[in-house]
Structure formats: C-alpha cells, structure tokens
Design goal:
This protein has 262 residues and is of the alpha+beta class. Helix content is 22%, strand content 26%.
Amino acid sequence: MDVAIGRKEQNLQNILSHMKEAAQNKAELVIFPECSLQGYCFRDREEAFALGEEISGAICTQLAQAAKESGCTAVIGFLERDGDNLFNSALVVGARGVLGVHRKVHLLHLGVDRFTTLGNIPFPLFQAGDCKFGVNICYDCSFPESGRTVKLKGAQLLAIPTNWPNTSDSWEHTPKVRATENHIFVVAADRVGEERGFTFAGHSQIIDCEGHTLAEAGATEETILFADIEPSLADKNRVIKVPGEYEFDRIASRRPEMYEVD
C-alpha cells in the first residue's frame, strides 16, 4: 500500500477501498501496513501529533463501521493520540466494532518512532472468525520475545504491519523465522513507494506455520495478497518429519528455567 503523508483523508479512502475489495473476495482478516492512515516520515512531534486520531474519534468509528458492513476483521496501522501521548498503533476493527489496539512496544530512532510513546499494552490477542491472532508492529518483530509471547498466549497467526525500508533485509528472513520458531502463521504487510525520500521495500508476505511462503508481493506495485489457511494447524505444535525417528515440538521443548541471565 502506498501512503501519502499528511493526506489522511486520501489514505482513509484507500484503506476503505482496499478493505471493501478484500471482503468482496471473501477475506475474513485484512492487514494493512504500519502507519497506513497518517504516514511515517514526520519531521517533528508537533507535526505527527496534529494528525493523531483517538480510538473513539470519527475516523476510527468510520473504519469500525466499514468492518461491520464488510463482515471482515481489519488491522490498520495508525498514529493514536491518547491524552498527551502519541502511540504508533494498530487498530483492530471487526463485526463488533473497535476490538482494540496494539501499541508498538519497541521503538527505534527512525521516522515517527522518534516522537512516539512506548507501547503500554502487553501484546493483546484478537479473534477473526476461527483464528486467534496477535500483532507485532515492524521493529517489534526484531525481538523473538514478541512473537513468542503472542504464541504462548494462544495465537495462531501473527500480524506484522510494517514499514520496512528498502535498506533493510528484514523482509527476506524475519517473517519466515518467526513463523518457524513459533509454529504460527505470519502475515507481514509492508508498504511500497516513497515518502519524503524514504523508499519502502514492499514484499508483503503470507507465511504458513512451517515457514513456507503462501503468497508474496513485489517491491514496487501496490498489491492485495490472498491465501486460505487452516488456523488450527498452528495448534499442532509437534512436527513429524519421520514418524518415530524425527519429531520435535518447539513449544513443548522449551526450558524457561535455563533461560535466566545472571
């Protein structure tokens, strides 16, 4: 998805249009990139804060209404204003309206993250149809604990709204690694195009719970990816390569008592 900074209404209409198209193709869960609504490359906090949206505000309400009408659940990256705080958040809307938000837990010195507040909600879980899912926003998924926490809470899918730049190779390995190590489906939604001279990598992906690519976008064209998944497969953590000879379970084999750091 291509996003224009400061053109919130235009971005909103693009989101609504893509949500409608995805729902018409029977998508139950639709994931948009990080900061889809307002953009990412802000020069200062004042500029970003002025475009922030409250969860109870008109735009989030409109997105919730669109989700109700389309019958799908959507994860939408936006700048959330809460009092004096500005969070890099993912709004989750569905048939019941606003289902909640994930606020980016890990911030790096880049773009709007230089001016936002550390997320204060520990990786909530959401439901879309028969699929339980959690969210990591971009840099969150650089920390294995983020995906593992979502998995241990019972998620079957990890949604990653992201703004990976074309100078990063995260898109090449991170979605597959997080899927494989947690035996979880991963959907990474990255941006394409440019914003204030900043070029995005694209390569949005849908990865199954064994790390296989089900669908992948290119680097430059705006694309909607589709894939059919069976969420319950992510609950079957024991992988059997050769029955009785080569089997493993990356969740059951964990030994937290050995992970302490002096």
